[in-house]
Specification:
Layout lengths: L1 E4 L5 E4 L1 E2 L1 H26 L18 E2 H43 L4 H4 L3 H19 L3 E6 L3 E8 L14 H15 L6 E5 L8 E6 L5
Antiparallel strand pairs: 1-2, 3-4, 5-6, 6-8, 7-8
């Protein structure tokens, strides 16, 4: 986390993701939309400094929550809520596929011991590991919950909907990441993944509910 001065001389926090995560997001967006599509989004959000110049592949905290949120919001602005939702979900799924190449080896989720766990335990451990990625490497803050039928991915400081106001939950990017993570962890199963609360709508947290049993 960085700080920036205001006109009154006080300092406000500037929450961020590491450059590596910003780069993964833009590469994923490019996979889904193509380079011209990404450039159109960058133009709309006045972020032309990222034209053919994605963040470097390092852990410096250089990709702000504000930048992430504006880019995700621009999907809805350009393609409408339904089209934007679909693009954000697909981008989130691609983010996981890119991210597991970088973060997977350091987290041990490819170890044989993990692979042979029972499904529910595998999911629980997977959630803990993925939450650690965000809590350790970014200012995005996640805690976990669980009841008899569901896991809960509870985002207490969300970089996806940062600063947004909406009538419906907007963290489709996070839902897409979890969908792909669950598919990968389970060895090819799909699960019901639904955002049931969102800070953008006035809730205290962004909460994503995940059914414990596969839907197929």
């Amino acid at each position: 986390m960085a700080v920036q001065g205001t006109a009154s001389g006080s300092e406000q926090p500037v929450y961020a993701f590491p450059n590596k995560m910003g780069r993964i997001f833009l590469l994923s967006l490019e996979e889904v939309m193509g380079r011209n599509g990404v450039n159109a989004i960058l133009n709309l959000t006045n972020m032309r400094h990222f034209y053919n110049n994605y963040p470097p592949n390092n852990f410096d905290m250089g990709f702000s929550f504000n930048e992430m949120s504006r880019l995700v919001a621009a999907l809805d602005e350009m393609y409408g809520p339904r089209g934007g939702r679909g693009l954000a979900l697909r981008t989130g799924q691609a983010c996981f596929r890119f991210g597991i190449k970088d973060f997977g080896p350091m987290l041990g989720v490819a170890d044989l011991a993990f692979r042979v766990m029972p499904l529910t335990m595998k999911l629980r451990v997977g959630f803990e590991v993925f939450a650690e990625v965000f809590n350790r490497f970014s200012d995005h803050r996640v805690r976990l919950g669980e009841d008899e039928d569901h896991f809960y991915w509870i985002i207490e400081r969300c970089g996806v909907c940062w600063g947004r106001t909406a009538s419906n939950p907007t963290c489709h990017l996070a839902v897409g990441i979890l969908q792909e993570a669950l598919y990968w962890v389970s060895g090819g199963c799909n699960f019901e993944v639904t955002e049931v609360a969102c800070v953008a709508t006035g809730a205290n947290t962004c909460t994503i509910e995940v059914g414990k049993k596969p839907v197929d």
